[in-house]
Amino acid sequence: MYNKRPVVVAGPCSAETEEQVLGIAHALKEQEVDLFRAGIWKPRTSPNSFEGVGSVGLKWLCRVKEETRLKTTTEVANKTHVEECLYHGVDTLWIGARTTVNPFSVQEIADALKGVDIPVMIKNPINPDLGLWIGAIERIYKAGITKIGAIHRGFASYGETYYRNKPMWQIPIELKRRFPDLTIICDNSHICGRRDILQDVAQKALNLNYDGIMTEVHHNPDEAWSDAKQQITPAQFKELTDALHLRGIEMNKALSKAALEDARSKIDKLDDQLLKILHERMRLVDDIGNYKKQNDLPILQPARWNEILDKSISKGTGKGLSEEFVGRLFRAVHQESINHQQKIMNGQTSHDD
Ligand code: PEP
Ligand code: MN
Fold first, then answer.
1. What local confidence, expressed as pLDDT, does residue 352 receive?
2. How many whole angstroms separate alpha carbon 210 and alpha carbon 346?
């Protein structure tokens, strides 16, 4: 979607009044904004929250287009929303996180889009399920929509957390690995749920080569009718985008292409070695598994496992690896070892050669 600078989607969480929508749009028209966002139909957790102004807001988006030339986008959750948006000339549609989880709703939207040429952005589902996200993307693609973007808005978790919705970066990274041409936008507002870390999350996304950001901007954030804590003023938004560091360009300067390729080929070799080492480790695990079977010993030896984990974490952190990473790595290795030994106990062969 872009070459040099990121795609920028900005605007209020919700369209509240005609003055509010137009006021924010006029303030943003001076900035490098590609799409003006405003929720018309709001999927709210509680029925007592503001649920959006409904169809009347589409007329306000028409005025935004006429007066500012900004393109517009809003959330659709069913066939009627799609039809009304198309009728009012909304430029891009997005499917919200609470809709992506429901294949019936996504299919209804897909059916309403057959034969229409409009870009559609699909937010990740609220739960960390890459398959569900991909399924929704496929449904829209099968309807004949070719301009598709994925919006990463984080994943819900229970209780007080640092982020409102945990980013779980590995999920969009895997999405991009499987669909390299897919445009990926970071909705830093819904990931953060607060203002002070919006910049950090937007930068993290650009460092990961995201194509753009979606940020909620409101002329009077504290008084916003929805998501007040995470919205920022147009001036604050300008500061945020001005401070963003575009890495693609810098990297070529910092590291010559040859040096980059050299480093990458070394990494490939190390990865090969890693796999060989893991293979050797599993062969030893199999030997021990056979011994445990012959001597009727249980697979899990908690004292030994604790010792391995403690030792690895202390050695790993000493080498600058995070405790979380070393823990996760060794838990995965341990689980694979248990799987191997379970097979042996069940009489299945575990040697792969
Ligand atoms: C929104 O963008 O205002 C919104 C409701 O987002 P999400 O679907 O990510 O919760
Ligand atoms: Mn919102």
1. 46
2. 46
Closest residue by Cα to residue 76 from 105, 56, 111, 101 = 105
Which protein residue's CA is at the shortest distance from atom 10 of ligand 1?
97
Superfamily designation of domain 7-243 = Aldolase class I (3.20.20.70)
Q: Please state whether beta strands 183-187 and 35-37 pair in parallel, antiparallel, or not at all (unpaired).
A: unpaired
Task: Give, using CA atoms, the residue closest to atom 4 of ligand 1.
Answer: 96
96 touches ligand 1 (CB under 6 Å): yes
Place of tokens 């299919």: 107
pLDDT of res. 353: 41
> Whole-prediction pTM value?
0.86
Domain-wise residue ranges, the chain: 7-243, 254-345
Residue 14 CA: which ligand 1 atom is closest? 3
Q: Whose CA is nearest to atom 9 of ligand 1?
A: 97
Express each pLDDT in 93-111 by its tens digit. Answer: 999 999 999 999 999 999 9
289 lines ligand 1 (CB under 6 A): no
Of ligand 1's listed atoms, the one at least distance from the Cα of 190 is 9
Alpha carbon of 51 to ligand 1 centroid (Å): 12
- Ranges of the chain with pLDDT below 70: 1-4, 248-255, 349-353
- As a whole number of angstroms, the distance between CA 216 and CA 140 comes to 25
The predicted structure's pLDDT at residue 2 = 39
| Contacts of residue 175, Cβ cutoff 8 Å, sequence gap at least 6 | 130, 133, 134, 150, 182, 184
Q: Which CATH class is domain 254-345?
A: mainly alpha
Cα 132 to Cα 126, 128, 166: the distances in Å are 10, 9, 17
Please give the backbone phi and psi of residue 254, each rounded to the nearest 5 degrees, phi first: -70, -35
